[in-house]
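Q: I'm writing up a methods section and want to include an example of the input and output format. Could you take the sequence below and give the corresponding predicted structure tokens, formatted cleanly so I can copy it straight into the document?
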Amino acid sequence: MQLVQLIIPIEAAHRTISYLGDLGLFQFKDLNAEKSPFQRTYAAQLKRCGEMARKLRFFRDQMTKAGLSPPAWCSRSDGIDLDSLEVKLGELEAELIEMNANHDKLKHGYSELLEYKLVLQKAGEFFHSAQSSAAAQQKAVDAQYSTEGSIDSPLLLEQEMVTDPSKQVKLGYVSGLVLREKAMAFERILFRATRGNVFLRQSVVEELVIDPASGEEVEKNVFVVFFSGERAKNKITKICEAFGANLYPFKEDLGKQFQMITEACFFPFLVTGRLEELKTTIDVGLAHHSNLLQTIGYQFEHWNILKAGVLFLQQIRVAKYQEANPGVYTIITFPFLFAVMFGDWGHGICLSLATLYFIIREKKFSSQKLGDITEMTFGGRYVILMMALFSIYTGLIYNEFFSVPFELFGPSAYACRDLTCRDASTEGLVKVGPTYPFGVDPKWHGTRSELPFLNSLKMKMSILLGVAQMNLGIILSYFNAKFFQNEINICLFGYLSLLIIVKWCTGSQADLYHVMIYMFLSPTDDLGENQLFVGQKFLQILLLLSALVAVPWMLFPKPFLLKKQDQERHQGQSYALLHNSDDPLEMEPDHKSNSHEEFEFTEVFVHQLIHTIEFVLGAVSNTASYLRLWALSLAHSELSSVFYDKVLLLAWGFNNVIILIVGVVVFVCATVGVLLVMETLSAFLHALRLHWVEFQNKFYEGNGCKFQPFSFAQLKDDDE
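A: Here is the clean output for your methods example:
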């Protein structure tokens, strides 16, 4: 991957951009990052392209609804006129919007007419059956009067005929359709609102009905409500509106009413004919709509690519490539360094049990709202489980179970020389058996021998682990040209680690402090009893010279190389490939102008001098920082020992049940609160710092960005 400068003539810009978009291997860099979108030169063109993109998204949505898909490939023609394209897209959008509005209007009218047909049929059946029943009753009454003639009969008939018409009650009615799921509630509300002064008839519509408002197929009932009075009519109308019922009233005139009922019941083909005419109109509109979408689909991909290829701006940062991913190594090294500071297999078991509880019930906790601390702990449950398992491992090495040693892997190799051994110095222990097979010998705990042996072991082990992890970072830094900047670590502290291992293997009594100090003060003096192997003096001089050479090597070459590159660019090699560099000043883009700025050698040299001092000091401070492994491990062990000796054993010595219970409660609370919570958080933060600062600063900066080339294929996938 290389950074190059590409100059394109204006007349060939569009064709070149189209070619690069097809190729999909170039990523453009924004040279106007400090400007807002409205201050850019082509802001108006970008706004027009955005509007055309919106229209194209509208076309895609319409084609998706119609079940159409644009072809995956289209031919690209030359001589593209963006102004004509903008006008054409606007005309097509207006035509589609008008067609959609007409279609919705026709569909709504068709659904209303279909419902009206159902109302005419069902309500017509109501009225027809009512008229038939009334005629039958009238015939029965007439027949009764003719057969049971009496003196009073003519008088009664005459009285009925002369009744005042103004005193007769006139009934009104409202008809329509209501959702079947709301029919029962609709009937109850009508009854309560009118206090039972209505008569409701309902009929189930067997087939599904298309609702005019939503356009969905639903189940409905046809209803007719008979009422008396204008006040009741207003209440019924409001209730119908609340329930979303569609009202289709009959004519008030009885003659027209009879005509409509007759047509609905005996001549349904009249209404059906009107429905068929409307359906034909809708089908013709849909066919025209589909043809228009197919026409758009043939050119859609071409228009979409054209819209994207006009101008492409993307803000990116200067990336530093070829960096190793630290996450691969941190998966193991992070919980291990935590365990070095937290090593106690009793505490590790408690921590693992608490973490397993979160893991087993993770489905339940995932659906609950947890507190801040609990949610953070639950989110890192698998990392904490790894930390707990490694703590059990290092606790077995330290041979500490709540600070108590156990002879798990065999008897101790040491014994007291006499009865005063417990109060004697380290010389009070003598080796009487084979070496303890795994971890620290249990006799190293609880005596004054613990100070020189166990603590010395932890301190030197911290140095070895720190140097090993930093050297891993140095090896990884080789891939981004930082290897020589970390040469001091290898020459000095890598050599110290070698001396520690040799001393352990040979059992030498050499003073390593003396060796490292006089390596700098008197490198040519004889080592004497501090010599661990043949050729040690020559190796020390060689490593010291290498460390000294690394300082000017970091300081001088880079500024002169950058100055030489600047001179070559001014001599006409402006389009030479720019090689990767670790210095952000070298890769800083010029946002103000396209002309070359004057190279400031002094500024670059001072900048490199600061880097050199930083790495020389960091070689010492980073190694010393790993001694926190020893310090926190010692603090954890001592706190655990204090809680065990001064709380639990002290309470046990009183031979009192109440004091024993209080002591156990205090011991448990102190262990959980201090050792399992506070010490866990402390060791976690220190392990995090060792990885972020001491380990990753050797090889990882993490300021790169993903390569995102300008590609028409990628733009198509993003739109989808």
